[in-house]
From TrEMBL:
Region (Disordered): 253-297
SMART domains: IG, IGc2
Species of provenance: Papilio xuthus
Record protein name field: Lachesin-like isoform X2
Alphabetized UniProt keyword annotations: Cell membrane, Disulfide bond, Glycoprotein, Immunoglobulin domain, Membrane, Repeat, Signal
Length: 375
């Protein structure tokens, strides 16, 4: 071995193999090595050593950058390694990187960007957050570094519910959502900000805040056991070096429910109708003449004689019942128009009265008269 380096050593297996060992390899150990055998002629074999180094990111670059809304920032990342590492940028939580021009007009949206310098123009508050510089050259481990970007703007307040209704003796929580960068100083006041007093944490008022984003917080004011004097306007305020903002919430008492009792009186009227008695002087009941079969063998009478006999019997009935000039002779006239068989033995006629007001004696009388005429 030509060189005198304690980190280098050679071993021989006693036959035909020599090996070179380098301990604690350094970058300067890279190069070409030759194994030579002093024979005649001389024989040699060449070998090349490359020392690789995993990536590393220099700390001389700043890890924070800030600018007002609409401004620009430049993030620089310097990395070393063998071979030379590739530098890429990504946002934390998988969000996209947005490139804009000076007028904040969006040009390009990417998931990752390759390059040692990341320039963001036309900043908006949603660009605020963590950006990662990642250096990789295929030699593990991969190196990364965090850069914080802050976008500065005055506070903006949004009220969750401008009007809140609650009843007395209940608890209520009033909320305001604040966006500000840098983080704003927040306060609660009863009434207008010019006249109201600042509220502090106590058994009556419980004040708290929740962080919802890089630049947003939620202000909470809890009021316990509401009284009449607690109702009114409450003001939430936020202030930072770029401005001030306020929001107003009107706490109102819930109207009491009124119960109205209504009494309804129902009057029932019952009408009893007495049926009118049936007059016996109304239209006479219809009478039907039923032909009775003749069981005698008398000779047939002339048709005209039988017709005259029937007419006389009916006229006699009408005169005795209704009078000579009574107009209720409709039935007799209708019967008179009925045809009588032109031949056959004498017929006996019985008057059937369907009205309950006709007496049996009248029926017998009419039958008798009819028979008397025939004889």
């Amino acid at each position: 071995m030509v060189t005198l380096n304690p980190r280098l050593s050679v071993t021989h297996n006693g036959h035909n193999t020599w090996k070179l060992y380098i301990s604690n390899v350094e970058p300067k150990d890279s190069g070409t090595y030759m194994c030579q055998i002093n024979t005649d002629p001389m024989m040699s074999q060449m070998g090349h050593l490359s020392v690789v180094i995993p990536p590393d990111i220099a700390d001389d670059d700043g890890s924070e950058a800030s600018a007002p809304e609409g401004g620009s920032v430049a993030l620089r990342c310097t990395a070393t390694g063998v071979p030379a590492p590739t530098i890429s940028w990504k946002r934390n939580e998988g969000r996209n990187i947005v490139f804009r021009d000076e007028d904040s007009k969006e040009n390009k949206v990417v998931y990752s960007y390759v390059g040692s310098t990341l320039v963001l123009k036309g900043l908006r508050r949603e660009d605020m957050g963590t950006y990662l510089c990642i250096a990789a050259n295929g030699i593990p481990p991969t190196k990364s570094r965090r850069y914080e970007v802050t976008v500065l703007f005055p506070p903006v307040i949004r009220v969750a519910s401008p009007v809140v209704l609650r009843a007395t003796d209940m608890q209520v929580t009033l909320q305001c959502y604040v966006e500000a960068s840098p983080r704003a100083l927040t306060t609660w006041q009863k009434g207008k900000s010019q006249s109201g007093g600042k509220l502090l944490n106590s058994s009556k008022y419980i004040i708290s805040e929740e962080v919802v984003s890089e630049y947003g917080i939620r202000m909470n004011l809890t009021i316990t056991r509401l009284k009449k004097m607690d109702f009114g306007e409450y003001t939430c305020a936020a202030i930072n070096g770029y401005g001030k903002a306020e929001g107003t919430i009107n706490l109102k008492e819930t109207p009491q429910k009124t119960t109205t009792t209504t009494t309804t009186t129902t009057t029932t009227t019952t009408t009893t109708t007495t049926p009118r008695p049936t007059s016996t002087t109304t239209r006479p009941p219809k009478k039907h003449l039923k032909k009775q079969p003749d069981r005698t063998n008398h000779n047939a009478l002339d048709a005209d004689l039988r017709q005259a006999e029937l007419n006389n019997a009916l006229n006699f009935y009408n005169i005795n019942t209704y009078g000579a000039n009574n107009s209720h002779n409709e039935y007799a006239q209708r019967t008179e128009r009925q045809k009588v068989r032109p031949s056959g033995p004498p017929r006996h006629f019985v008057v059937y009265n369907r009205s309950p007001f006709t007496t049996p004696s009248l029926t017998i009388f009419i039958t008798y008269c009819a028979i008397h005429i025939v004889i």
